[in-house]
Amino acid sequence: MQISEQHFPTLPEYSAKACPVYIEPIVGSGERICVGVAALGQDGQSVIVRTIKDETAACMLGAASHKLLNLVEVALSSLKNFTAQHKNLTDWQSPVPGVILGSIITGHVTDLTMMVRTVARNHAFLSAMSDFTAADDSIADDSPATDRWATMVREATTLLRPNLAVAFNRQLKLTSKGVTRFDYVGRNLAAQLGRIIPGHGISGLVKTAKAKLWDLETLREYNEQQLFKSSQSYELILYRPKDNDPAYSEREIGRLNEAFVELEETGDKQQLRVMAAYTAEGAAQRIVSAEAA
Fold first, then answer.
1. Which residues contact 148 (CB under 8 A, 6 or more apart)?
2. Which listed residue, 165, 181, 253, 279, has the most CB atoms within 10 A of its CB?
């Protein structure tokens, strides 16, 4: 039987190049960890993403993890600026010793996100750690990662406005049963900070986020009774990965977006705002902007 081209599926028309980004924790040792993926499309568009999560680095290195992540961020930022300007990957020189590019791969894909995920799946084993974030959907989001997210937002905010430090982690007595903790209560904004990430524990994260919305609603009701004077806006600020994050499959990102829409609808019913934040700096900018209004 003669096999012709019609027996094979048609390749996507979009062509792209991509490569893993490695770091040698001990420069010159030859030991390498894939910490990022760089992709460049035929139309000149580029995507640079980090494939090692904050919590993964913390598990590996403990208190020293921020040093590694800072080096990674410097290298990836340089690579992002280079590819945007020069439209190639081969001529980039890393500003960080020990950070190198792997072999450049060319392929036909539907878009750059598909290319990034393919390279991450084949080169970055740490990017798959999200599959094991939780074993039970009923687990609440009381993890150290959540506390770290709130800490990161506080630190990023106080870098911009040091006087706002006192507005974080406030304990308010709203009922006779005890106090309720709020991540941020300032003059013009009351905000709860949470996370929503793909994986087996996403249902638990959604439940926790809804509980934070209920706390905000209770706070607003007490404020309307003028038991204390503060806050004009009430928001739930959720950390979430971007749609092109290679650590997650398209199916996981789809489930994430569905969950986020569900939380937005819940917030709309309570006349509360649900906002996405991809970085602590983004959340900090929102807080500072609200307080400046």
1. 54, 55, 58
2. 253
